Amino acid sequence: MANISGIAKLAGVSVSTVSRVLNNHKYVSDDKREAVLKVIEEMNYTPNKNAIDLIRGETKTVGVILPYNNNPAFDQMLNGILNKASENDFSVTVLPSEYNKNKEIGYLQKLKSKLFDGIIIASRASDWETIIPYSNYGSIVSCEYTHNTEIGCSYSDRYSSYLDTFQLLKNRGHFAVAFTTARLESNSTNQMIDAYNEVFGELPTYYHISDCQCLDDGWEAAKKFLQSPERPTAIYANGDEVAGGIYLYATSQQVNIPADLAIIGQENQPTGSVLGITTIDHQLTKVGEEAFNLVLNKSREKIKVPYSIIERESV
Asked: What is the mean pLDDT of the chain?
């Protein structure tokens, strides 16, 4: 079987010269490069990618830890990462975690084993104290804000966006406001509850439903909200698909949107656009793009991506 040592011997050059040719190094004379390439062709040699990665000191591969691969919000983030990866000739490996801490640590071990140049964490279950030591082995970038100096992050200021959204509803005369979230135990859920309390006062338990991910979840959430002790006049959904389910259930019950019920979604997704639902766009594609740039530049910067409120007919 052909190997670098054999190629070097047949071409009459050193092993390091063969390595430089395989890595497209510019400091190789034309005659030596030609001799090496001729032997490679004659021996039908295919270089071992892992060996070349070790020589080069990089894999040109980025891992992306994300909980689900069928969630519109994470799809937007991943799309941004893929855009920039393609521009820079990088490969992307998707690492679905389902918020399983053991899976997350297993993926970080791959960074330690030099299988990735860096890892982007779209969302996590593990605490930062567990994650940070792995930053010694490659770039780790978060898609949520973290004050840790060892970790770069690309993020949208979600707390401010939640405050602005609740304040918008209050300014429109809504005081009975309900909302949905994806996970009960998460930073974004805690921030949304804090923002609600700041704008409206203490949150009634029947105005918050968690574990909402899709259209069907929105339908079921709307059914519960509209049967609550004090029916809400506005609902803020954690995604436009969830908002779409709320919209469809409400209209099936002859609830007029927005006269009887105002609805706001998130992330400017097609469902919201088709149904005319007001949305909070956290520009997740841009968050993904900036996250990749941080890995590429081995940067630990904190990059804040601005959000915007897109008003439509549902408020």
From this structure: 92
